[in-house]
Amino acid sequence: MAETALTNTGQGAGRLPGWQGIAADWASDQRAFKNVSWGKAMMWIFLLSDTFIFSCFLLSYMTARMSTTVPWPNPSEVFALNIGGRHIPLILIAIMTFILISSSGTMAMAVNFGYRRDRVRTAVLMLVTAAFGATFVGMQAFEWTKLIMEGVRPWGNPWGAAQFGSSFFMITGFHGTHVTIGVIFLIAIARKVWRGDFDVERRGFFTSRKGYYEIVEIMGLYWHFVDLVWVFIFAFFYLW
Amino acid sequence: MTNAAIHMEGQIHAHGHDAVAKAATHAVGQQHPIKLYLVVWGWLFVLSTGSYLVDYFGLHGYLRWSLILLFMILKAGLIVAVFMHMAWERLALAYAILLPPIAVMVFVAIMVLESEYTHFLRVLFFAAPS
Asked: Which of A35, A216, A217, B68 is most buried, with most CB under 10 Å away?
């Protein structure tokens, strides 16, 4: 009984076009997400709730920045680095952005190879993704250290509005936590892929359920979401 | 972007013709050519470079803000549509996930009004005399 919930029910794969199809799917005595497994649907719903959490963080940052009469510190200057004697604005954040995008690229390809049942390539690409993620967190730790050394605190900083520090630590801290959890999640799933759990349908130690390669795509959804959140943080916090 | 759109079109087309075959392919999951992901990856790099250059060249005012938003929306759209496969998911799921965040826009509008009011009061009563 529980096993059938994992796979497609095969019911009603055809659909009416546009809104009629949506209304039909959501109508009574229906399973709304027909050809979407519960695991994927639940991950999407979790990500939706996470969207609201990050929206609230960015909104509180917007409110603080719009309502303060003290000038906001210029992020272009705050996050500038001196490399080889040259003063380059925002360079660390730009590199972090490219690293996270690259990790999304390798993750998308891991999902693809997973569905082709290419065990080794999937595991390797997932580990590469995890390595990119760990690099990102490492650079964030460097960034935090640099700012704390320069005197940024949640209650004040040397350059302007006091809310800069609290917004910065809250938003990037929460995002960094998501990346860290993602890295752990990636390594755990990569191990299962590498061991061939999804080829022999080995049962999980905790749920006692058979695993499928779809977990790689569900894992990928989480990972891409972390990248997606960074797109918004980069635009609103660092560039604005 | 166009590539993804073409791909999506193809999927919808296939759907209309043989829903059964479509259901069968869905059973083994999302299958797309690797090239599609590489193209999107490339575009994400180009768009990120674009948004970084906005800061590098120190553009300001409405030009800066509109470019930042444009690059942000294009990047977010590519990630959700192609990397997260939302372009190929059933509409009932896509709408259930993509519509609720629009409610956040209402929240944004409320907080913009609120913070402008707070700012006005701060200027009126608390600004240091100069």
From this structure: A216
